[in-house]
Design brief:
Elements: E1 6-12, E2 16-21, E3 26-30, H1 31-36, E4 64-70, E5 74-79, E6 87-89, H2 90-95, H3 100-105
């Protein structure tokens, strides 16, 4: 998949985040799923890749309170549960795009490792 960058990142109420990519693709990420997909060292063991955080440990109504662009390659969310250490690269966000087209082509690993 060629490297793409977001043209627009937008909150969709308290439910989801939408990214419009420079190649025209649109990704909509449910907030709970996006928070669960955090790959920081606190959420995923750096050595084994095993997920330390389970979906059940994350409040169902979690939402981003803010976001910050990291260079020209990533975004960092500040979550309503106080978590803010994860950096989501643009490449990773495209890999986890939950749209039907991406899931159908298998472009993304849709199951996190470890304790899901």
């Amino acid at each position: 998949m060629p490297q793409t960058s977001p043209l627009e990142i937008e909150k969709l109420g308290d439910e989801a985040m939408k990214i419009v990519w420079d190649d025209g693709h649109v990704s909509v990420y449910p907030n709970h799923e996006l928070r669960f997909r955090c790959s920081c060292a606190g959420c995923v063991d750096e050595w084994t890749g095993v997920r330390r955080t389970t979906a059940a440990q994350i409040a169902p109504d979690v939402k981003p309170m803010g976001l910050e662009l990291v260079g020209n390659y990533a975004v960092q969310f500040s979550w309503s549960d106080g978590h803010s250490t994860g950096i989501y690269t643009y490449e990773y966000l495209r890999q986890i795009c939950p749209c039907a087209a991406c899931m159908r082509t298998g472009a993304a690993p849709h199951e996190p490792k470890g304790n899901a």
